[in-house]
Amino acid sequence: MSSGQSQDPAWIQSWLVNSIDIGLVFAVAYIVLVIIGERRTLWMVRGFIILMLATAISNWANLRLLYIALNSLVTGSAVAMAVMLQSEFRQFLEQLGRGEVLQLFGRGRKVIPEPDGVIDQIVEAVKELSQNRIGALIVIETGSPIDERDFSVPGVRLNAEVTRELLQTIFQPKTLLHDGAVLIRASRVAAAGVILPLSERMASRQLGTRHRAAMGITERVAKCLCIVVSEETGSISLAEKGTLNRPLTSSKLKELLEARSFPSAEERTATPISIGSLKRQIGLKGWAFISQVFRLRSSASREKK
To answer: In angstroms, how far is CA 222 from the centroid of its own chain?
Structure first.
């Protein structure tokens, strides 16, 4: 009887440790999914979690050979996901290093409201530059501020209001800043003459240095857009996550900017949340995440039909 009493605390302790271990794994997976924030990666994350669960079950069942095979797959999958989502993981590590824990959940940072007409000013300037075949590069931040180390040269700080006239003047061929890019941050022209890193991808021969620079900065920084106006053809392009969307009309450019660059009306009124509300938010989002990831396959089969 004394032996049974001595085993009970050990069993309870082991159960608690295992529960905490599993909970921490799900918490890390949830944070990664929140940072990625894209629906197209849901199935990949779901498959990775199922693979991890299968590995744990095989270890628990003492299936050594199966465990070794699955463990190798988990390791390879983790490396592959880190490569495919390197910009998101890089942002996660940077925010973690700065101690910006609340920002990991998307609402910790203070959102600066965007005044009406900023997109119109940008689109009108790009339209005029395109018609006159004047080359231009415009980087628009859509998330946290871009680190100056992501630029080859940070450029000249301006902190000026975004206007059509200012953008057109900066990119005139005889000005000193026309060869670089303009950085727009929170509806302000933060800097001009910014030199961007070039993409190392194999690009079409029709693409010049400006297009490679737009691809390069959006490869390094996931939460930004880069507008390109070709000096030779006057065509308009929009770079996002290393991919060029081209050619675009001014109306299509405006549509894309409205959909992707500036925060929605709900985000504009967002305020920093307290620790208590953060706990409630984590609980609600966590339950929604688990329900979405492990929903029944019948829903997927109905979509295929």
So the answer is: 4
- Cβ-proximal residues to 134 (8 Å cutoff; 6+ apart), any chain: 168, 171, 172, 173, 229, 231
In 3-state terms, what secondary structure has residue 228? strand
Please, where are the H alpha helices in the chain? 2-36, 42-60, 64-84, 86-98, 118-131, 164-170, 209-220, 250-260, 265-268, 275-293, 297-304
Q: What is the mean pLDDT of the chain?
A: 76
| Kind of pairing between the strands at 188-194 and 156-161 | antiparallel
Q: Supply φ then ψ for residue 235, to 5 degrees.
A: -70, 150
**How far is the C-alpha of 269 from the C-alpha of 265, rounded, in Å?**
7
C-alpha 57/C-alpha 219 separation (Å) is 38
Residue environment code for 56-75, b if the CB has 16+ CB neighbours within 10 A, otherwise e: bebeeeeeeeebeebbeebe
259-295 residue pLDDT tens: 876 544 344 444 444 444 544 555 555 555 555 545 5
User: How far apart are alpha carbons 168 and 181 in whole angstroms?
Assistant: 12
SS3 category, 141: strand
What lies within 8 Å, CB to CB, of 109 at 6+ separation is: 100, 102, 103, 144, 272
Express each pLDDT in 71-118 by its tens digit: 899 888 888 877 776 666 676 677 677 766 665 555 444 444 444 588
CB < 8 Å & 24+ apart, contacts of 103-110: 103/144, 104/31, 104/34, 104/35, 105/31, 105/34, 105/278, 105/281, 105/282, 105/285, 106/34, 106/37, 107/270, 107/272, 107/273, 107/281, 108/272, 108/273, 109/144, 109/272, 110/271, 110/272
Dist. CA 162–CA 51, nearest whole Å? 49
